[in-house]
Amino acid sequence: MSVTAVRRSLLVLLAGSVGLALLSGCGVEEAPAPLTGLVLASASLPISYQVLGATVEDLVSANQQTLKQAETVDFEPAQCTPTADAEFNPRLDPDNTAVLVAESDTATLSEVVTTVRRDIDADRRATTGPCRVVTAVPAQGTLAGARIVTTSTELPAPTGEAVEQALVLRSDSVTTLAGQEAQFRVRSALLATVLVRRPNGELVTVMLNVGTNDGTVKPAVPDRIEAPMNEDEYRKLVDEAVARAAR
User: What sign results for the dihedral spanned by CA atoms 157, 101, 6, 136?
Assistant: First the structure.
């Protein structure tokens, strides 16, 4: 269990998206796109990414397991214990959420669009300021006794009339495995959560994450941790996700 999984939703996501549902007829305005039309289309994925299939139920179930595991994790500083998922996850269902996941050889890209409001203030408290660097020590599971140090760096967030609130982060984690010999796992993720106001007044939460797949155990921590995607390319994807949600 990585600290990113503890902090944020474990995004097990639905493949594909459907086209827009439009009202036709004289004097009738275009209907807002359905949620399933707001996630990234498979044809628009970055090169080398392939869509994977899952359901919203998978997302909720995986998050429930992560939240259960998080109950046995000690966080330092203690005030950096994440709280947003516990309120957010149980409210997700197929009627209010659309999801997408795609994978390359080195990274997984996931997107959630939901009418459930995410507590971005809680996410910000758990990842910035005194919580910019957090140590997590699981007491149970395969990583029991490991020390997971996560450093979060806030990145420029999208702006515009449709954006009510946004938080974009790069999260780098170094896991020191328990044992006599020093062994490490290194991961990096780009994480965006944006509250978007649609033209009909509806508020949606957009979460677009890209994380490295590498679970290789290393004898030493590399001098430089590689991001899962070029940050400029990632910010462009986030801007496009916001534009889709604002339709």
Answer: negative
